[in-house]
Amino acid sequence: MKLRFTILLLFTLIQVQASHIVGGNLFIQASKAGQYNYTLGLTMYFDALNGNAGAEDELVNIYIFRKRDNLPIAQIPVPKVSRKSITYANPICGISTLQTFMITYAIDLRLEVTAFSDPDGYYMIWDRCCRNNSITNIKNPGQAGSLFYLEFPPISKQGVAFVNSSPSFSEIKGDYACVDSPFTFDFGGTDADGDSLVYSLVTPRQGFSSSDNPSAFGQGSSNYPTITWENGISEKNIIPGPKPLTIDNKTGQLSVTASSLGLYVFQVQIDEYRKGVKIGTVTRDFQLKVVDCPKQDPPLLLFKPVGTDQFYSENEIIKLSKEDDQCFEVMVTDPSPNQIVKIRGTAFNNTNQYFQILPNSFKTTAGNDTLRFQICLDDCFISYDTRPIRLQLIAEDETCPIPLLDTLNIYIQRTDAGNNPPVVSTSLAADTVFVAAGEKTTFDVFCEDIDVDLVALSAAGQNFLIADYGMNFLPTSGKGQIQQNFEWTPPCSAKIGDVLAVDFLGEDQRCPDNTLKKIKTVYFIVGSSANTPPVVSYSESDHIIDYRLDQKTPISFQVTGTDVDTNRIVLSAIGRGFDLSSVGMQFEPQSGISVVNSQFQWQPNCQALEGDPNRSFIIDFVVADQSCAAALDTISMTINLENAPEQPFPEMPNVITPNNDGKNDCLVLSDLPTDNCAQQFIDLTIFNRWGKKVYYSKTTDDWCPENISAGYYYYVIRYTHKNIKSGLTILQ
Q1: Which residues lie below 8 Å from residue 529, measured CB to CB, with a gap of 6+?
Q2: Structural domains for the chain
Q3: In degrees rounded to 5, what are phi and psi of residue 628?
Q4: Residue 504 — left, alpha, or beta (φ > 0 → left; ψ -120 to 50 → alpha)?
């Protein structure tokens, strides 16, 4: 805070009034130093001839406000980092009454997310007085300030960094316009983020600075004051004339034909859009001087086709074959002596130039000097179709401030260059293919060139993208002869009767940017899809299984799904009114081609009866194919589950004689009642007469004691709801 106070005090004490501001703009650029790091500053154009040297600030104050409510956010002192004289587009065109410095102020800083995340964004300003006294198109220019203005979006949206840089501009050239002569001026910029830029001419902002307060303290506003135009001047004729000042809203190129001498100030507003949404604005001021220039006439291009003494008319088409001379002569004249005249050319309808201009630069030695040059066509300067190639020649002299031009368009149709087109064919019997939704179609495409040139093969849908329809065809290239496979399974959304045309393009690439092309079109007609339903079966011979819970063997059988159409099929099982896994049934769904198998297995228990003496379970086994004309088959299995009947307890023996004679050696337990859902065996415990446990078992295996003393014993047989207690005498 102490540093900021010192800087403000210095600016309060040293205020210099001067007419010095030519123009400029603010900028904010995302830095590579890390997230939320930016370089902020301004570029100012300073009048080196009329400006007061004391008005060239070493520091400028840039103020930042929140757009939503004009709340002050920051005041940033920014130091001067460079100063240079701007040059002319043509250095020989400099005049003594026009000299401008480009001064750059910049600072690197990190912006705090908490301060710069308002959804409506922010704006920054620099407000300084004064403009040049000699400006022609505004009132009281020496009392008018300059306000540089820039809007920028929040640096974070919904917690995610939103990276953006304001447009960048190349150095302005120090050019001037000649009265009554057309003049163009590149005022466009570029955007590092790829955002689109829209240009418009606006009335320059003046701000709140004045000759009495040239370095005004920054004030936030949604409607800054603007300069006052001279009578008869408005945004529609900032520089008046037969063609007043205009700007191309896409490129930023300024155009004007001025009718009066003077110094004209203007402001261009550049709006920045991302995905159709405006995210930023910057204004850029400058002034253009209109001077009286010596009258100059442009050069003149002339052409006489071979075999005629008449000059070429642009309505003619020059027809050439490989037997004709590949070079022809063009003339250029210029009224002025000692002029450098340069020739350049462009071939339209031909993506590469494939021609030479020899020579392409001259110097006139006398007024209306006539100079001659050759246009020589390469072998690849060929018009393969009926359209001629438009060869545009431009002659440009060194007239100041901008060159004068003449343009000559020559239409040339040049055929029969000894190159044969490729032949494109397919492995199909005809050019029409009947297809069905969900059914794969495949064939090979061939491209052959009898000249053994490099050829390329690709495919494109007529009025559709083949990738959008799931068609597979990879472009390929090679020498002489190549082939590639086409594959397509029409989607289920394909409608019967639809016709799709695919062009298979073969290109002879002897001339890379002027290829000789041949197309083979294949028509796909969508028909109905034939589909045989799949079949499901199981290894059980009956559809009903009766099962009593005292059975020990689990229920098990195999389920099979088949499909003769070789479609992918899915086999699954569904319980009617119950979930298979909840009662312990095991069945894994399966998928595959033609045939799939899965094993059903179940070891029922009492829980499945849910307290009832019996219960029926119905399982539906379903096989479904995954063709577009989907079909399925179902087979059901009913399992009747029954509780085991309750059995009476047998009479237990009270004497055993374990002497290994095979008679009455064991306490027989195998005759005990089998378990059912009401009664289940728990365990057997045998005690001697003193209560000591001599045997324990959780099974109903017979007890055949060995090495045990004769005597009297007690035993307890426990069931879930009943116990049997008795005595047992062991005799040896």
Answers
A1: 436, 437, 438, 439, 627, 628, 629
A2: 2-291 (no CATH), 300-414 (2.60.40.10), 423-527 (2.60.40.10), 535-642 (2.60.40.10), 655-730 (2.60.40)
A3: -65, -35
A4: beta
| Nearest to 188, CA basis, from 249, 116, 103 | 249
Q: Nearest Cα to 519, choosing from 459, 477, 468?
A: 459
Cβ neighbours around 690 below 10 Å, total: 6
Alpha-carbon torsion, ordered 613, 616, 617, 622, to 10 deg:
170
Whether 165 shows a pLDDT value over 80: the answer reads yes
Q: Which residue has the tokens 């297809």?
A: 435
**What's the token pair of residue 688?**
């001697």
d(CA 528, CA 538): 32
Are the C-beta atoms of residues 585 and 575 closer than 8 Å to each other? yes
pLDDT tens-place string over residues 372-390: 999 998 888 888 777 888 9
State the amino acid at position 678 in one-letter form. Answer: A
User: With 0-12 CB in 10 A as exposed, 13-18 as middle and 19+ as buried, what is 496?
Assistant: exposed
DSSP 451: T
Rounded mean pLDDT, 506-526: 90
CA distance 201 to 239: 11
Q: Which amino acid, one-letter code, is at 412?
A: I
Q: In terms of C-beta density within 10 A (0-12 exposed, 13-18 middle, 19 or more buried), how is residue 105 classed?
A: buried
Q: pLDDT band at residue 213, thresholds of 50, 70 and 90? A: confident
Alpha carbon 565 to chain centroid, angstroms? 40
Do residues 452 and 549 make contact, with C-beta atoms less than 8 angstroms apart? Answer: no
Assess contact for 40 and 62: CB atoms under 8 A. yes
Q: Which residues, in sequence order, are bridge partners of residue 487?
A: 442, 472
In the block, residue with structure tokens 């005249």: 341
- Distances in Å between the Cα of 464 and the Cα atoms of 432, 435, 461 are 18, 18, 5
Q: Sheet containing 243-247: which strands, arranged edge to edge?
A: 182-186, 253-257, 243-247
